[in-house]
Amino acid sequence: MHEFGSIQVEKEEVVSFGKRFVPLTYHTDAELAKESIYRGLIASGWHTAALMMRLYTDHYLSKIANLGSPGVDEVRWDKPVRPGDVLSIRVTVLETRVSRSKSDRGIVRSSLRY
Fold this sequence. Notes:
The protein is α+β, with helices and mostly antiparallel strands. The protein has one domain: Thiol Ester Dehydrase, Chain A, CATH 3.10.129. 30% of the residues lie in helices and 25% in strands. The chain contains four helices and three strands; from the N terminus they run E-H-H-H-H-E-E. A hairpin with a 7-residue loop joins strand 2 and strand 3.
């Protein structure tokens, strides 16, 4: 297991991302968000995923030998992320193997948690 971080969740980014991609009041309006089930402004799960991708890219992925990702198996948002929170990630390698179609390449399957 590897731990990386940190990145702070900025209110302006929460609102901007929310307005552009997930225009729900608990992502876009601090006053209206107080009336939501979250009782305040929270980051979109997709914004949180983007923040985690930034940490993952900065601290874990190879800048030389990275060929991209075949996809994501599961995404979960277990708790609200709020402006001012400082996030970090834990990466656990689950599996490494040689590619079936391109034997000169490998695949690393990891689990990420924030």
